[in-house]
Amino acid sequence: MKVGMRVRGGLLAALVMLSTPLAATLAVGFASSPASAQTVDSIEVQGNRRVEAATIRSYFKAGPSGRLDKGNIDDGLKGLIETGLFQDVKINEAGGRIIVSVIENPVLGRVVFEGNKKVKDEQLSSEIQSKPRGTFSRPMVQSDTQRIVEIYRHSGRYDVTVVPEIIEQPNNRVDLIFTVNEGKKTGISSIEFIGNTTYSSYRLKDVIKTHESNFLSFLGGNDVYDPDRIEADRDLIRRYYLKHGFADVQVVAALTEYDPQQKGFLVTFKIEEGQQYRVASVNFESSIPGLNGTALAGYSRVSIGSLYNAEALEKSVEEMQIEASRRGFAFAVVKPRGDRNFDNHTVSITFGIDEGPRTYIERINVHGNTRTRDYVIRREFDIAEGDAYNRALVDRAERRLKNLDFFKSVKITTEPGSSSDRVILDVNLEEKSTGDFSVSGGYSTIDGPLAEVSVSERNLLGRGLFGKVSVTYGEFARGVSLSYVEPYLLDYRIGLGLDAYYREQLASPFISYATKTIGFSPRIGLQLREDMSLQLRYSIYQQDISLPSFLDNCNMNPSNGLLAFNPSPAWIAANGVAAATALGATDPSGQGLWCYSSSQASLPVRKELAQGATITSAVGYSFDYNTLDNNKVPTDGLLIDWKQDFAGVGGDVTYLKSAVDAKYYTPLVADIVSLVHLQGGIMTQVGNNQIRMLDQFQEGPNLVRGFAPNGIGPRDINPYGTQDALGGTQYWGASWELQMPFWFLPKELGMKGAVYADAGWLGNYRGPTDWTATGEVNVPGCIPPTNNGFASPAAPGTCLGLQYAPQNVVRTSIGVGLIWASPFGPLRFDYAIPITKGKYDIVQQFMFGGGTQF
Q1: Could you give the 3-state DSSP secondary structure of residue 376?
Q2: Tell me: the pLDDT tens digits for 63-85?
Q3: Phi, psi of 830 (to 5 degrees)
Q4: Residues 6 or more apart from 99 whose CB is under 8 A from it?
Q5: Rounded CA gap, 222 and 443, in Å?
Q6: Distance between CA atoms of 364 and 428, rounded to whole angstroms?
Q7: Which of 17, 135, 263, 664 gives 20 to 30 Å between its CA and that of 300?
């Protein structure tokens, strides 16, 4: 009997439908035929061109007797079809022999994509299975078509269509062309929350990564529908509630629906908040001999009376387990247990410390790091091969690897080792680009227009190093800087930073002089805890001062032939008009045409100009405490920065400068955030060297808004001077600000308003007040007379060289602000009205600052 079967395209569905009758037919056809006694070697293969006959025969496995039966032939047929190498497969019997006739699938020549603009060819090629020089398979093409559609839908384009086209070529070859019609981006029309009573929808939109579409969405990508991101948002909402005391919270569902009228998705998160719990008690129980549970109490971040915080609970478990390991209990496992009191809305927490399984790390395998060196990854682990397996340390290593920002994804999994007490850690990574070329620009009422070009690399040479070169050019500020950071100095978790810079600050409406600074600063950073860091630094820089030409036109030397003798009013005061006339002064009348006659730089400026360039050599440190919930847009937490610098380790100047800056954020009702900002500083003279004016604190809107830069504090009020700000050696400031969203605007715009009140003081000027070399002495109460509107020289020693405004005024102001986390970068607009001010303070009610990178 002759039995034949043809299956096109290798479709398994057809195979399943036909397998039963085929088996029955084969059973009938071969049961009594001599063909059933054939061996594998006797099978005749026909129609094969690329696939060897022996390869086709290998799919037919004989039974124990070495002969083929109906079952062997059926299995061989299925195996050949599943290879995808053949369009048709037939099995026939002729002349007592088994004949396998095949028609091979064509070979793929080119695989081409047309119409794709948003997704590159390289990405699509890496995602599909059809490859050049591979075997053409229609089911594979259908699968690849669907995969391309999924890629576009994950990027927010649900209207995409993909049409595969097959072009036949000679020698049984085909070209495959995927024609893509990308369609328009499908965004998120709205995001709604159901069941949230404690936190508003406005607040919860800050928690999730998905945003609603708006007119600026083209600058970002979080407004497109991505089911994976929606699922991740569910977890973010749950963790947010767990962090704020809602131990029973459930994000039941994230419902998505496409709205054809709005051509966007409607996303709805359904939440069951439950009750908010506080901690009633915290207990520690240890079943390990020699380890007292209360000995680990100091590493708990959970306190009685506080809101239940699952995040603090996780960190407590991690810290306690690591400390137990340090004390020699490498296999200790800390497991928290919470007993809820539903009536009182409290939870009693017990940390149980038990002996875990004695498991060791056999190997740590790293996969996916094509550029980053292995040791850069392994040094983030506090454990190595042969150490006791500690899940807390593994979780910490995974978190550290993610924080490096070198990888798109980081996943650490475990596999059984060579024995029951061994495990293998598999570190699976996906690298991403770590270089950055940016051109940034901005404008502020302080620095004017400003542009910066920078090139940086976070993972230099794959060694985890950081390098950056930047060039800044603006109306009043220019400079070049180079930075280098080695995060693991001598293989210790200590960061070494090196900075070299050149800065030029030009004369502006706020200062009459310009400065040039060139310096070098090495620094060492240590992370004491997740919320504490310490930085030690050394700085050495050279600074000199210059004046514009109209303030630097004095010629005190009558023998200088390049310029006519043009003495200053101080020289005239010290030597008299007759002496000036005798030496050839250009204005013997003394009516004010001497140098500095129309305006005069302050005495400290001129004195430091005469001293020439000075070198400052200083050592210092900074201590930071940071519990902010978000470093970019904080709503809760405390940030304290304390720093001190001592100048006098060589160099030309000596001083001790101390400063503290503290910000406390706390959320209030209706998404309003309160900010309390306190700051202060003091500068102390060391030795006999007088403190320079340039080294003293200069304050303005950074202390009290509503005043110009260098607009408050001691000031030179000499009638014929430029009224330069002198600065001071002491300052303090206090500010209270309320930040609130604009509920009537889309959340995704990132706009919020602020109202604030500021108070501050700057004083105790300790710089030079006289200059005996020019005859300028400090005689309090003396004001030089004027003649026809010009300052007239006074007799020698009768007029003070520097007059400055009273220092005992506390400046205060109130104002409003607009804060915009725009796609162009952070922008802020402020309008402040001074309430109290000094007589000679400079007011600037409107302030604007911001910039961007592209």
Answers
A1: helix
A2: 777 777 777 788 888 888 777 77
A3: -135, 140
A4: 43, 44, 46, 90, 91, 92, 93
A5: 28
A6: 11
A7: 664
